[in-house]
Design a protein that fits this description.
This protein has 329 residues and is an alpha/beta fold. It has eight helices and 15 strands.
Length: 329
């Protein structure tokens, strides 16, 4: 009996994973591919993406960490996209420290968008466990912000909206809606969410096209691009952010580790089928077909080999993503 129970326990993650893969495919086919964009989106003449948290910085005075947060500024809106990790649960957090150093005030921000509910985007492990988010490990009034959350995240008492399909965020700005990604280890055994719903931002820049801003890329680059094409019927002018291409151990080595966990966690694949260099080159080839004018890959969840591959592929169109260095469209 004990052996049977152990066998069932060992088999459960695999059975759950394959069930979740079917759920992922069904949501993609029956929901994502039939979505329409929200009405009256409008356009913005200007767009600036200022990385506030990521792995690399423009200078040594700025904090870096294995998390993501970008400030997205348009004609009419200032959006905080993701909230970093805050590994040590500090107050103020690395995000808040960098905001001060870069002259960003909380009063400047009118909107917060969370791409997906993982520890390095919601401000720490305790937030992921509780299904909530924070900018810092201390009190902070967010009552004047419009907040757009993916499925599985909430925070009572403030102005939040759960995003289940494409919605208008501001003038010229929409959420793509969540694309579901089944996760073997990260979703099925360590944490309660079997699938990761992740949304991206799509900004319609006048006379240029759609700029996609991505948190982690668990949804897969090819699906993000296809969804954007189906929704907006406009050129893809730029792709900026995390796309989850960890094929070497460069990032973990910087933390003093030897096991490249990102190759096996959050990829949407089984442990013996990690993302390879050929997979990255295939995705680069697919992106080239859209002929983007601006490409910037985050080091957050992609290794240095992948960063170089993107840089080599896009040349002058590639912009290094560094904390404190704005990307201006």
């Amino acid at each position: 009996m004990f052996k049977q129970m152990m066998g069932l326990a060992a088999a459960w993650p695999f059975a759950s994973y394959f069930w979740e893969k079917k759920r992922e495919a069904k949501f993609w086919e029956e929901n994502c591919l039939s979505w329409n964009p929200p009405p009256a989106i409008g356009q913005t003449k200007q767009l600036e993406i200022l990385p506030l948290i990521d792995w690399y910085a423009a200078n040594d005075s700025l904090d870096t960490e294995p998390g993501v947060s970008y400030l997205v500024k348009t004609d009419d809106n200032t959006i905080l996209f993701d909230l970093g990790y805050n590994v040590k649960q500090e107050h103020p957090s690395p995000l808040m420290k960098n905001m001060v150093k870069l002259g960003v005030r909380m009063g400047d921000i009118d909107t917060i968008v969370i791409s997906h509910h993982h520890v390095d985007h919601v401000g720490g492990m305790k937030n992921q466990i509780k299904g909530t988010f924070s900018l810092t490990n201390g009190p902070l009034d967010l009552s004047d912000k419009s907040i757009f959350l993916p499925p599985g995240v909430s925070r009572p008492g403030i102005n939040t909206m759960q995003v289940n399909r494409p919605v208008k965020i501001g003038t010229g700005i929409t959420s793509t809606g969540p694309i579901y990604s089944a996760q073997f280890l990260l979703g099925n055994t360590l944490f309660p969410m079997g699938v990761t719903p992740e949304q991206a931002l799509a900004v319609d820049v006048k006379d240029k096209g759609i700029v996609l801003i991505v948190g982690c890329g668990h949804q897969r680059l090819d699906r993000i691009l296809k969804l954007a094409k189906n929704l907006y019927h406009k050129p893809i002018y730029g792709v900026i952010g995390g796309l989850h291409f960890p094929v070497t151990a460069s990032r973990i080595e910087k933390l003093g580790g030897r096991f490249q966990v990102q190759q096996y966690l959050g990829t949407g694949r089984l442990p013996w089928d990690p993302i390879t260099k050929d997979d990255v080159l295939e995705q680069i080839s697919g992106l080239k077909e859209y002929d983007p004018s601006v490409v910037s890959l985050s080091a957050h969840d992609s290794c240095d080999w992948s960063l170089k591959a993107f840089k080599d592929a896009f040349g002058d169109r590639y912009h290094e993503l560094l904390v404190g260095d704005p990307i201006v469209i």
